[in-house]
Amino acid sequence: MNVKLTLSYDGTDFYGFQAQDGLPTVAGEIEKALQKILGEVPEIVCAGRTDKGVHADGQVINFHTSLDKMKEYNWLRALNSILPRSVRITHCEFMPEEWSARFDAKAREYHYFLVNQRFPDARRMRFASFCYYDLDVEQLNQYCKYLVGEHDFTSFSAADDPSRTKIRQIYKLDTMRDGDLVTLRVIGSAFLHNMVRIITGTLLTLYRKGEPPIRMKEILDGQNRQLARDTIEPNGLVFKRVYYDEKEIPQ
Amino acid sequence: MNVKLTLSYDGTDFYGFQAQDGLPTVAGEIEKALQKILGEVPEIVCAGRTDKGVHADGQVINFHTSLDKMKEYNWLRALNSILPRSVRITHCEFMPEEWSARFDAKAREYHYFLVNQRFPDARRMRFASFCYYDLDVEQLNQYCKYLVGEHDFTSFSAADDPSRTKIRQIYKLDTMRDGDLVTLRVIGSAFLHNMVRIITGTLLTLYRKGEPPIRMKEILDGQNRQLARDTIEPNGLVFKRVYYDEKEIPQ
Q1: Residue closest to A11 by CA, chosen among A162, A136, A197
Q2: Residue closest to A9 by CA, chosen among A75, A60, A65
Q3: Which is nearest to B27 in space by CA: B36, B15, B37, B38?
Q4: What distance in Å separates residue A241's CA from the closest CA in chain B?
Q5: Which DSSP string corresponds to B175-188?
Q6: Which of A12, A57, A126 sits opposite B121 (nearest CB)?
Q7: B163/A202 Cα distance (integer angstroms)
Q8: Residue pair A188/A108 in contact by the 8 Å Cβ criterion
């Protein structure tokens, strides 16, 4: 049985998705829960690893098991009754044996939340960063547009990223405002390590300093991490969803 | 100078509002910040103490200081730059010397958030409890109405409550639905220890078991904590605001 799970997590107290000895991680919690149900820990494949402090509304994982008596709904119940409340399984589906949460993913969507207020409420800052200066989303989108398309994103990749090629496809990158909440939304084929946080940090710095939007293209073309700006803090970042059907990707 | 501050906090990691030696508390953080600014810790008066794990959007405090050179806006900036992000000062106002955040408060408003979903997202559970069974707010309100008015709330008070009289006035108590979020809203003169959480826990238990609404009145009239049901968990509770003007209290 090839089990696909969609899960959400509050990443505040986790050292990221990937299991690490002796540290609380999302995968570590899932492994502990599967150990209780299956008596063994299957290999977990995920659509996109998230870093320490990053959240997810729609992470997707899969694993193989010989246990084939349990129905999808019972997987949901059993796992959620064992997992801490900071990790919730929201969907379960049985897939063909060869299906992979990672390799069948066509695109991933992340949101970065910014509260555009000088003194925001404390509860809003749990899942957002904040900006005291006024954010004009029309103007922000002028910077964003240069990153849409297929490019080498070396400038927006952490030095430790192990990928052979830094070429990625961004399908959509824009910002939108709802009251004093500004959301950066990005959909891409896949992302390099820290890529969304470096893009967001760079965008805000260029905007705040009044640099012209074309500077974003120059940073991209330079293919050098030193050209981009700071990696923004993780707590505003949410892994929203995975696209397995190319036709569903917004263009 | 009599300084009034409105503050919000994410109570997750605090042992309640009141300062306690060696434990992280909201008042403890404010005292540390005031120590840095004033070189001393003034006595802090608050509109309503909150328990471990309870949040606030609009707690109000005041304190007296001989420092009279700092403007209101600078108090906001200075305190927010020192305080952890889980405590944010949202307003500052200078008041007449005799004004008290506690004794001049005419009413307090609390909200209890319930996600009405079997498998809610993890991020929503940071500031809410959840109910897997369907909540009908019209029906819930049939139970609520018996508690509105001036009553002896002994049945809905923690055993350790030190108040001489358990008589309190509830101006408003109802539930409302927005999508799958159900909010219990209560406005009262003041609240006994755990009163909102015992009311919410009792309401949900009576509703779930299909008990008739009049049972709420019987529990109230019994004036005995043993008649009411469990205290619901703290994380869904938010201290929303304080009313200092009687005319603003919704009736």
Answers
A1: A197
A2: A60
A3: B15
A4: 13
A5: EEEETTEEEEEEEE
A6: A57
A7: 55
A8: yes
Q: Which two tokens stand for residue B40?
A: 């001393």
Lookup result for tokens 């400038």: A155
Torsional class of B154: left (φ above 0), alpha (ψ -120 to 50), beta (otherwise)? alpha
Q: Is pLDDT of A229 > 90?
A: no
Distance, first Cα to last Cα, chain B: 34
pLDDT of residue B68: 84
SS3 A216: helix
Whole-angstrom Cα distance, residue B13 to residue B11? 6
Q: Which two tokens stand for residue A239?
A: 């892994």
DSSP run (H or E) holding B60: strand B55-64
Regarding beta strands A181-188 and A149-152, do their DSSP bridges make them parallel or antiparallel, or are they unpaired? unpaired
- Contact residues on chain A for B10, CB-CB shorter than 8 A: 122-123, 125-126
ipTM of the assembly? 0.87
Nearest chain A residue to B119 by CA distance is: A90
Name B243's bridge partners: B107
Residue A10: which of B87, B88, B123 has the nearest Cβ? Answer: B123
In this structure, the strands spanning A237-243 and A107-115 are antiparallel
Please report the DSSP string for A76-98 in residue order: HHHHHHHS-TTEEEEEEEEE-TT
**Strand (E) or helix (H) holding A138:** helix A137-144
Q: What is the pLDDT of residues A121-156, one digit of tens each?
A: 999 999 999 999 999 999 999 999 999 999 999 999
Which one-letter amino acid corresponds to residue B241?
R
H or E stretch at B79: helix B72-82
Q: Give the end-to-end CA distance of chain A in Å, rounded to a whole number.
A: 34
DSSP per residue, A7-46: EEE-GGGSS-SS-BTTB--HHHHHHHHHHHHHSS-PPPEE
Amino acid code (one letter) for A225: R
- The one-letter code for the residue type at B230 is D
Please name each of the domains of chain B with its CATH number: 2-95 (3.30.70.580), 107-248 (3.30.70.660)
Give CA B88 to chain center in angstroms: 16
Asked if B192 contacts B164 with a C-beta cutoff of 8 angstroms, the reply is: no
Rounded Cα–Cα distance for residues A140 and A132 (Å): 15
Average pLDDT over residues B150-158: 96
**What is the SS3 assignment for A68?**
coil
Percentage of chain B beyond pLDDT 90 is: 94
Of A87, A119, A123, the CB nearest to B10: A123
Over residues B37-58, the pLDDT tens digits come to 999 999 999 999 999 999 999 9
* Residues A8, B55: C-beta atoms closer than 8 Å: no
Which of B54, B77, B88 to mutate against chain A (most A CBs within 10 Å)?
Answer: B88
CB B41 within 8 A of CB B95: no
